[in-house]
Amino acid sequence: MRLNHISNMVTIFRSDIDVQHSLFSVLLSVIVINIAYILRVEKWKLEYIAFLLSIPISVLICGWRARWNAIQASFLGGIFTLSLLCAYSTNNLYLSIFAWYFACMAVFHYGEFLVTALTNRPDLNFSSYLLDHSLAYWAAALISWVEYAVEVHFLPHLKNVAVSYVGLILIIFGEILRKLAMIHANGGFTHMIAIKKCPKHKLITSGVYGFVRHPGYLGWLVWCLGTQVMLCNPVCLILYLLVGWNFFNERIYWEERYLTSFFGTEYIQYQRNVPLGIPFIKGYKSQSSR
Predict the structure, then answer these.
(1) Rg of the chain, C-alpha, whole Å
(2) pTM reported for the whole predicted model
(3) Which of the four pLDDT bands, split at 50, 70 and 90, describes residue 13?
(4) Does domain 133-281 have CATH number 1.20.120.1630?
């Protein structure tokens, strides 16, 4: 099984033009920015120029039809590289924490595209980076940035490097759990709720799905809360928890309703044997399971 997965991955890297464009764009951005950093002509200004130039260069090389793929991959590669360079070179603790946060954001979004390509190629598209996730998602991110800036200015004692390390651990755990959920789903993981059963749909009860029914959602929630712990944002931590819980409470109800219609008693038995994963969310219960 593992050999088959490795073989499929190699095949995708060799033959999938969208994946090749993405990898080329992200690597080009990383390499160009690092070269600019090594040259150190007017420190940081050249790195930003390199970042801005890497995006149109990626589009020119990959072609106009692949522009959204190239733009997003190059952008994420640039954000990741600039963030790490900033965290490495600055003596400002607050700037360093913020830089690590953005590096984690870039890894998450690029990972969504890459793991989707490796596990569920038919569903891969330029929205798989989730950069166009929703207005609410980016509004929440913006609010967290504002809170961080305000608290750094007025309440700097709230920012603690030990707490930020705890946040980093949560981010890593949530990231790994979510990506394992995508891998173990073996093509059944999608960013949108499936309302019709497809031939490829199978009920997965092994791997991380043997511990919780919704490891992808749990992983994302832990990752999301981890970002606010890393930033030491008490207000947004509470807001993210409330909004995230409410979002998944409704989403899981409808998803489990469809899954029950897809798999019947098999899914009902799975519900009985395996916990949902997110505390205080009950999900959907059919009449026969009550």
Answers:
(1) 21
(2) 0.93
(3) confident
(4) yes
